[in-house]
Amino acid sequence: MAFFKHHPVLILLTSIFCANCGVKEISLDFPEHTSKPVINSIIKKDSIISLTINTSEPVLEKENTTITNATVILLEDESIIDSLLYSNGQYNSNTIAKTNSIYQIIASISGYEELSAQDQVPSLPIILASSFKDSVYLDDDDEYMSQLTITLQDPPDINNFYELKLGFKYKGSPESGTIFSDVVFYDYINNDLVLQNEGQLDLDNFVHPVFSDALFDGTTYTLRINYEPDYSIYVEGEDIDTNYDLIVILRSISETYYEYRKSLTIHLDNQLGGIWEGVGQPTEMYSNIKNGYGVFAAYSQVIDTLQKE
Question: pTM of the full predicted structure?
Answer without folding.
Answer: 0.84
